[in-house]
Amino acid sequence: MLLTVTTTRPPATDLGYLLVKHPGKVHTFDVPTGTAYVLYPEATEDRCTAALLLDVDPARLRAQRESFELGAYVNDRPYAASSLLAGALAKVFRSALRGASKDRPELAAEALPLEIRVPVLRGTAELAGRLFGPLGWQVTAAPIPFEPEIGGDSHYVDLRLAGTVRLADALNHLYVLLPVLDDAKHYWVAPDEIEKLLRSGEGWLGGHPEKVLIARRYLAHRRQLAESALSRLEADSPLVEEEAELPVARKVSLAEQRRDAVLAALAEADAARVLDLGCGGGALLAALVKDRRFTEIVGTDVSSRALDQAARRLHLDRLPSLQRDRIKVWQSALTYRDDRLRGYDAAVLMEVIEHVDLPRLPALEASVFGHAHPRTVIVTTPNAEYNVHYEGLTGMRHSDHRFEWTRAEFQAWCARTAENHGYQVSFRPVGDDHETTGAPTQLAIFTTTEVTS
Hints:
Elements: E1 2-7, H1 15-19, E2 27-31, E3 34-43, E4 48-56, H2 58-63, H3 83-92, H4 94-98, H5 105-108, E5 111-122, H6 125-132, E6 138-145, E7 153-166, H7 167-182, H8 193-200, H9 211-218, H10 223-236, H11 254-268, E8 273-277, H12 283-289, E9 296-301, H13 304-314, H14 321-324, E10 327-331, E11 346-350, H15 361-372, E12 376-382, H16 407-421, E13 424-430, E14 441-447
Parallel strand pairs: 8-9, 8-11, 9-10, 11-12
Antiparallel strand pairs: 1-4, 1-5, 2-3, 3-4, 5-7, 6-7, 12-14, 13-14
GO molecular function: metal ion binding; RNA binding; small RNA 2'-O-methyltransferase activity
Keywords: Magnesium, Metal-binding, Methyltransferase, RNA-binding, RNA-mediated gene silencing, S-adenosyl-L-methionine, Transferase
Catalytic activity: small RNA 3'-end nucleotide + S-adenosyl-L-methionine = small RNA 3'-end 2'-O-methylnucleotide + S-adenosyl-L-homocysteine + H(+)
């Protein structure tokens, strides 16, 4: 993957002082996921271009515990700009990101005429404009077309930025917004990512009209981290009255929180081939399709009507063939063994088990955990203890629910199921976690180290 920075401020070769990289040499750096090179395709008094080239080593990327499981699958990570490139930028241009220059301190503080190009970046032209435009950049994002035999435009753009900006500011814009556009970080996002975001966003993020979207995507849709970052931005901003009209973090629905928690668990599991069992109308499928880390996605449901609805939601009849080949929808009953469901990385049962009659649960356990036996199974279900917080609710949350379990009941079922089928299980709350009743949704992650056939 490639990023170039060009200036026309004479002497343009002073760009080498700011980047601390001599224009007459090729500079090589070892980074966790491959090798980064800095070189200068052009270096004259009138125009100088520095290029950052990242050569991703798939074997090294695959060896990272929290990276994508590339395996034998085709993946865009070595080619499309992402958090991989942002990480390389942070290591290679560390001094320039801080705005420090021992040789040209006055130039580091000056706004320079800059042209930036990222030839391949996952995202849309519209979103690129919304992200970079408010920062003073003239944005040109040309969609990259598919090959003629396929037709249409891909989900990638050729991004060009032009503006008069401090080099440090430009690099910090890229460091934050490249992963935001890609929306698929290659590593697990921990709380310390908040500090990275606020440090790199200092002076511009607090007043950005898309700061909510930026925080959520940069922090991998981890709601609590994003809300913490946004709260700190608001607290640190002196322009309280002026910012009152800017977008603020809305209350995220429980359905969205549940979906994001499932997506986060799938990312932690390095799952590429995923089953959405009991997919219903396709809400989770739609989110899975947007993430290129999932190379094969299967939605199953016993209801043909639900599968028709999911197909319409996903626009399966209009997808290009390469996209369409990633997605399948099958009619299947979870209480019966289905050989088609064997051999997948992960299976999701999101708000499904409570719709199954209790006497039929052992059949579901046998077919999903026993026969299909994916490497990871993610299960969510309502927490009955939380129901006291719903005003006017006298029974269960949905008329089709056959049961709703307390936390102790759910954990006991999970423990038995895990022991019977060779899994370990861990639990997470989803939603506002009340000190007495717990969270509205309970999530279990079953994992096994067994090799499936």
